[in-house]
Structure to design on (351 residues):
């Protein structure tokens, strides 16, 4: 099979982790006789430096002409607390999600027994967690109006949702729950927020079409605690944009490192694949970042290409590598391996 993949490194450690994912994809291509053609685009601070814009038109064109996008990370401290900055790198990632109509951000959280000692799982005698977060990606407070008035003394971030936006991701999440353990938690703040009450009403309606799935409601504050004390109760978590962003980073603590978590962002056409972690600029260029989140994102891309066997092989390679003690510095600060070494081990296993 032949596939065109847009590669966007973005900022910080984006380049070095994405290069390891490409190594894994190249190994898969060799074993299964596929052809993956890569084309590079710019986004984030790297794009602002080169063109003045966080998402140049050329990148949008490259992405739209591809079957999928493999993305690294966005963010650069030069733009933090800088009132003179007219654009921010993060505007690039929000804009490309809108351009590609990516509304469903899927973040699987699977723990590795050999890393349980790093997480609350050990303390609570929990052997393994395996759940998936469905984060709404194209609306909510991220895309509402952001403005100040009263001479900068008052700030506003507007959160808006409509029924259509909720329904489309709810259907995706329920379909996934049907193929898993048939449990879905809607996480919201319906005791306070009007948008959350619309989520409850709409999701309750959608649930009628999925009578085999058990639907439960949970407030975000409770969900944040339950993820630590009893993560095994979750199968599919469905939530809005901001809550999903926060809960998925928290889930990094459950697996032992945020660097392990992958994601897929899907909409009507193109798939967009990126690790959950951000740009971690302090580590950039040092070959110490964890490439597993990016490599597992490439595995999700293979699933999207309808290559389940290939995706499983990548996941097996990751499990073997971690369970054999080959880990990066975020997991073991004494006996650690470099980003590129982990990438080599994983691609060697695939080959
Ligand atoms: N690879 C994920 C990433 O770069 N995250 C940094 C970030 O600020 N993302 C904004 C968001 O995910 O909404």
């Amino acid at each position: 099979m032949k596939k065109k993949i847009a590669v966007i490194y973005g900022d910080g450690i984006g380049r070095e982790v994405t290069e390891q994912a490409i190594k894994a994809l190249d190994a898969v291509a060799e074993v299964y006789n596929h052809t993956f053609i890569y084309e590079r685009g710019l986004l984030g601070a790297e794009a602002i430096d080169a063109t003045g814009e966080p998402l140049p038109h050329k990148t949008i064109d490259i992405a739209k002409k591809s079957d999928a996008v493999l993305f690294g990370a966005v963010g650069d401290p030069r733009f933090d607390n800088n009132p003179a900055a007219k654009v921010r790198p993060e505007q690039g990632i929000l804009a490309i999600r809108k351009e590609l109509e990516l509304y469903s951000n899927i973040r699987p959280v699977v723990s590795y027994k050999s890393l349980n000692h790093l997480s609350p799982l050990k303390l609570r005698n929990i052997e393994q967690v395996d759940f998936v977060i469905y984060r709404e990606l194209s609306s909510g407070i991220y895309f509402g109006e952001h403005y100040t008035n009263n001479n900068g003394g008052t700030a506003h971030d507007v959160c808006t949702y409509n029924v259509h936006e909720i329904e489309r991701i709810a259907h995706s999440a329920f379909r996934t729950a049907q193929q898993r353990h048939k449990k879905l938690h809607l996480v919201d703040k319906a005791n306070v927020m009007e948008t959350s009450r619309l989520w409850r009403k709409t999701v309750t309606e959608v649930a009628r079409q999925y009578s085999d799935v058990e639907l439960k409601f949970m407030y975000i504050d409770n969900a944040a605690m339950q993820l630590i004390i009893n993560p095994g109760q979750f199968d599919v978590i469905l939530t809005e944009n901001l809550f999903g962003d926060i809960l998925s980073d928290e889930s990094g603590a459950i697996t032992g490192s945020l660097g392990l978590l992958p994601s897929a962002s899907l909409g009507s056409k193109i798939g967009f694949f990126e690790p959950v972690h951000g740009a971690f600029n302090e580590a950039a260029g040092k070959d110490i970042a964890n490439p597993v989140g990016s490599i597992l994102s490439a595995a999700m891309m293979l699933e999207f290409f309808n290559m389940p066997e290939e995706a499983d092989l990548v996941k097996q390679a990751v499990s073997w590598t971690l369970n054999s003690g080959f880990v990066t510095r975020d997991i073991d600060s004494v006996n650690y391996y470099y980003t590129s070494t982990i990438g080599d081990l994983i691609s060697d296993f695939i080959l």
